[in-house]
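Lab notebook, bench 4. Still working through the backlog of constructs that have no structural model yet. Next entry is a single chain of 198 residues. Request: give me the structure tokens for it.
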Amino acid sequence: MRYLDRAKASLRDQLLDATAQLLVDGGWAGLTVGGVAGRVGVSRQTVYNEFGDKGRLVTALALRETARFCDGVDEALAAAADPHAAVLAAVSFALRAANDDPLVKAVVHGDDALLPLVTSRGEPVLLAVRERLAEALTTRWPEYDGPHAALACDAVARLVVSHLVLPLAPTDQVAADIALVAARLLGAPEPTRKKVRR
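Model written out:
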């Protein structure tokens, strides 16, 4: 059974990898179940059996990529000394990683048909990010697991997505601003600002 499970996981990953490449190359219009099947060397029915229709295939891809981003966010959080530094590191990582990712670029800047994956139909992605961030923060700093923890993590997730879709400031500034908002919502201390001598 373990071998079968590994084989099934490998097939799913191959199908999702093919989906990602087709989306980068041709957007929503260039993605077909037959095209995914052809890239992997399986029948269209195999893809339908594994994921269902094209929409579910893309949603599964979005969730897999979100989980991978969250793994990187967890690593960024682990090295931080306090919640403010943790959110700053996590947001900085997420924004830079997304800016370097061809699939994210295709979703947020290249194809209007894909943009709803992180906006009007982005609930699965936002929930996954919010839950992973909340779990990481409150496990490391349980004293901040108060009524505003969920709100802070939700705000961070939404602000990151908003910046990816419509960046209006440099990444470092956005990360600092989002970390400040999260610290205030959590009730965590903010870093002491150095006074400028005049």
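Notes after review: Residues 194-198 have pLDDT under 50 and may be disordered. The chain has one domain: 2-186. Flag for follow-up if needed.
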